C-alpha cells in the first residue's frame, strides 16, 4: 500500500520504506564521515557520500564531455540532465528545480546542490 509522508508529501511504497524515510526528517544522524565530519541518517548514505566526495576511483566517464563519476547512477543522471534535450527521467520530478554549479557548471537537482558544492570547498 502506498503511503504519503506527512512531512514532505513523498510517496513511499512500503511500511519499512516509510520508516527509513522518516529518519531523514528526524534530525538524528548516526553515521558520520570520518574524513569531513558530515553526518547522515543512514549508513548507506554515508557510503555513497564517501565514494562521491572522498574516493579517488572515478571509472564512469561521460563520452560526451569527459567528466568522470564514482557511481554509474551519477553518470546516467549527468547524461540525462546535461546532454539530453528531452525532459530528465528517473528521480527528478517534473517540479524539481535544477541549478548549474557556479564552479563547474554541473546541472544538478536543487536538493543536491549543497552537497555537490562541498566538493569545491574541499578543493580550496
TrEMBL record:
<dbReference type="GO" id="GO:0000981">
    <property type="term" value="F:DNA-binding transcription factor activity, RNA polymerase II-specific"/>
</dbReference>
<keyword id="KW-0677">Repeat</keyword>
<keyword id="KW-0863">Zinc-finger</keyword>
<dbReference type="InterPro" id="IPR013087">
    <property type="entry name" value="Znf_C2H2_type"/>
</dbReference>
<keyword id="KW-0479">Metal-binding</keyword>
<dbReference type="InterPro" id="IPR036236">
    <property type="entry name" value="Znf_C2H2_sf"/>
</dbReference>
<keyword id="KW-0862">Zinc</keyword>
<feature type="domain" description="C2H2-type">
    <location>
        <begin position="60"/>
        <end position="88"/>
    </location>
</feature>
<dbReference type="GO" id="GO:0000977">
    <property type="term" value="F:RNA polymerase II transcription regulatory region sequence-specific DNA binding"/>
</dbReference>
<dbReference type="Pfam" id="PF00096">
    <property type="entry name" value="zf-C2H2"/>
</dbReference>
<dbReference type="GO" id="GO:0008270">
    <property type="term" value="F:zinc ion binding"/>
</dbReference>
<dbReference type="GO" id="GO:0005634">
    <property type="term" value="C:nucleus"/>
</dbReference>
<feature type="domain" description="C2H2-type">
    <location>
        <begin position="3"/>
        <end position="30"/>
    </location>
</feature>
<protein>
    <recommendedName>
        <fullName>C2H2-type domain-containing protein</fullName>
    </recommendedName>
</protein>
<feature type="domain" description="C2H2-type">
    <location>
        <begin position="31"/>
        <end position="59"/>
    </location>
</feature>
